[in-house]
UniProtKB/TrEMBL annotation:
Keywords: Oxidoreductase. The keyword Oxidoreductase applies. It comes from Aeoliella straminimaris. InterPro entries: KR_dom (IPR057326), NAD(P)-bd_dom_sf (IPR036291), SDR_fam (IPR002347). GO terms for molecular function: oxidoreductase activity. This is SDR family oxidoreductase. It comes from the Bacteria. Residues 8-187 form the Ketoreductase domain.
Amino acid sequence: MGFNVEGCVALVTGANRGIGRTIVDQLLAAGAQKVYAAVRQIDSADPLVDAHGSKVAPVRIDLTDAESIKAAADEASDVHLVVNNAGVLKTADPLDPTAIDALQTEMEVNVYGLLRMAQAFAPVLKANGGGAFVQLNSIASMRSFPAFATYCASKAAAYSITQALKVVLADQGTQVLSVHPGPIDTDMGEEAGLKDIAEPPTLVGEGIIAALSTGDYHLFPDSMAKDLEAKYASFAQSVIEG
């Protein structure tokens, strides 16, 4: 199975900045017909509309708001590709007094938001021939970093859900891709103190387009991620993808 983005209609959450905005740019450069730029505040997508005109259609999605996601699925009923990129990171180690609140926030967005997106858009993808569903996870889904322990826990849960989606969505012909970046040069990466080791977000968008075309399930787009991939590959191939 492989998915070609050329001519497709896509939807990208968190499309107004960082990795999300870069993915929108790269999908259109690769020949996507239209991209729904899913954002919490519609006017935050104005720069994308200015850059790409009618090829970008802003749509409101808040991953904590199930009704906004259902309404977006009704509006974007022609979608072939969903890229669930939006997420939230809090800095909290397990003993931090804010850790429970941080984890609750991250689970609400990073995990329950993923479930809401999958449940709302799976029927849309099925109706349009299957298509593809891309989930932005992280190397943090596979290894805990103490300073971001709650974020890592939420991404581990999201990765687990993504594995289940791979199986259940295969029945309707929907390809699933789990993306695991390391430090990427975005506002989130800078806020986490990772700017000095971060790599360009273009690696993620380019990797997604290539991995979709070859039907891969995992994507490790940057240097740190590829180092992890080399150690994880045999387990992934025999257990996760087997």
